[in-house]
Structure formats: structure tokens, C-alpha cells
Design goal:
Elements: H1 2-28, H2 45-67, H3 78-101, H4 109-139, E1 148-151, E2 158-161, E3 166-172, E4 175-182, E5 185-192, H5 195-201, E6 209-212, E7 215-217, E8 224-228, E9 231-236, E10 239-242, H6 248-254
Antiparallel strand pairs: 1-2, 3-4, 3-7, 4-5, 6-7, 8-9, 9-10
Helix pairs in contact: 1-2, 1-4, 2-3, 3-4
Length: 255
């Protein structure tokens, strides 16, 4: 699911930036003397620039959102492969559109070879930019496999966080209060669920263990254990968590 989201980001980026960059090159910077060579069909610079931009955006859209998923290749090299396919297809369609505007007077090998090396150069910048942005988004997103996911009883509400940010979970009638790190402050999330169900769900995990009938605690975030007059309490980021007698030995032994 996460990888699909990243691929969609790249797909939308290259679809939009390729057409936008093509338009800027032709209409704004007037590349290839487009303003000095009027089209034989009578179409203006704006129309021709938009046409060429829409062609390449449309090609990238089809390749990224309809062809890409059918390619059984490594994800890291897929943007390169799909980019090459889009360039080849877009180049030929643009060459045909170019000849249409000039009534097929440019339909010869010299003109074609000029397209063959200039067209990829134009698209190199938006392709590189789109790939780098998508990679940056990917690197700054947590891997879903490393997240703890809490679900409500009806499965409609969910809360995800990294295990190291989880502090403890407290029972609150028919709800549970999930306490966690939130930019160096204590955060709290309320979900409708039973503490016992959460204990059973995470029984084989090491980031939530029972310490009291009303508490599950992340042992990794216990700052210290207070043991005075036979009363044991856990200090978790400034919060005091009681420990029932049946669980005392576990916490004393682990600290």
C-alpha cells in the first residue's frame, strides 16, 4: 500500500511536470525558434505549445498509471524504464504533431534525428526532479511494517505510531487512552476498545506488557522503578504508573 502511494506520487509528478516543462520551453523560452517559424496550418504559438505539452503529459499518464503496474521489474529501476518508454512514444507522437503543423514538410531523417536527441534532453529535468521528490517523500515516511496499529472495536478508527514513541495505555471505561511522545510532549489518543483485547492482540510483542489491571506499559520507556514501603510504581516520562503485586517481580527483574 505504501509503495503504491509512492509510485502514484511519482506518476502524478512526472505527468504534470513533463507537460509544464515542455510548455515553458516552447512558449516562454521560445525554444527552437518556434516564434520565428509560423505554422502552415495557421495555429499560434500558444496552441502548439499546449498541444505538445498535452501529448507528453498524456503519454506519461498512460505509461505510469496503466502500463507501469504490468511491468514485472524492480521498483528502483521502474521509473527509468517507464521514462524511456514514455520518451520514445512521446517523441514519435510529437514529431507527427510537429509535421502536422508544418504540413508534413519536416518529414525527413535529419529532422527526425534532431528530435531524437533534443526531445529526451528537454524531459531529463522534469524526470529527474520528479524522481528525487518522490524519493524524498519515501525516505521521510515511516515504514508501515515498523508501526504499531491500534484499532477501535468497530475497526473504523485507527491510530499508528512507532513503537519507541508508545508510552503506555490506560483503561477508561469502554475506551482506552493511548499515551505517546508527541514532539517532546505527552500526547493522548482515545479509542473505543478494551484493555484486555489490546493485551491479547499484542501478547507476543515486547512493547506492551501488563503492569496493572488498568495499565499496559512499554518497558522500553520506563525511566525508573520506585519501590518504597512495598509499593511499586513506574515512572514513564514524568507519569506515575501503578504496579499490581502480581506483576512486581517482572518489573523489578527487568530493571
Amino acid at each position: 500500500m505504501f509503495l503504491n502511494r509512492i509510485n502514484n506520487i511519482y506518476g502524478w509528478l512526472i505527468t504534470s511536470t513533463s507537460g509544464l516543462f515542455m510548455f515553458l520551453v516552447l512558449f516562454v523560452y521560445r525554444a527552437y525558434h518556434i516564434d520565428q517559424t509560423p505554422a502552415f496550418t495557421g495555429h499560434g504559438i500558444l496552441f502548439r505549445s499546449i498541444t505538445h505539452a498535452l501529448i507528453i503529459s498524456g503519454v506519461f499518464y498512460i505509461v505510469e498509471f496503466h502500463l507501469s503496474s504490468r511491468l514485472n521489474i524492480k521498483r528502483r529501476i521502474k521509473p527509468l524504464v517507464t521514462g524511456l518508454i514514455a520518451i520514445v512514444v512521446g517523441l514519435h507522437l510529437t514529431f507527427m504533431a510537429f509535421n502536422y503543423f508544418y504540413q508534413w514538410t519536416e518529414l525527413y531523417w535529419q529532422s527526425y534525428f534532431q528530435f531524437f536527441y533534443e526531445y529526451p534532453l528537454i524531459l531529463l529535468i522534469p524526470m529527474t526532479l520528479s524522481y528525487l521528490i518522490a524519493r524524498l517523500v519515501e525516505l521521510n515516511q515511516p515504514d508501515e511494517n515498523t508501526l504499531v496499529t491500534f484499532l477501535s472495536e468497530n475497526q473504523k478508527d485507527r491510530f499508528q505510531l512507532k513503537p519507541e514513541n508508545l508510552l503506555f495505555v490506560k483503561s477508561a471505561d469502554n475506551y482506552v487512552e493511548i499515551y505517546y511522545h508527541d514532539t517532546k510532549q505527552l500526547g493522548k489518543r482515545l479509542l473505543r476498545n478494551a484493555l484486555q483485547k489490546l493485551e491479547e492482540e499484542f501478547r507476543h510483542k515486547n512493547f506492551l506488557i501488563r503492569c496493572h489491571r488498568s495499565y499496559l506499559v512499554n518497558p522500553s520507556n520506563i525511566d525508573h522503578v520506585d519501590n518504597a514501603s512495598g509499593k511499586v510504581e513506574l515512572n514513564v516520562k514524568g507519569e506515575v504508573i501503578p504496579v499490581s503485586k502480581k506483576y512486581v517481580n517482572n518489573f523489578i527483574a527487568s530493571n
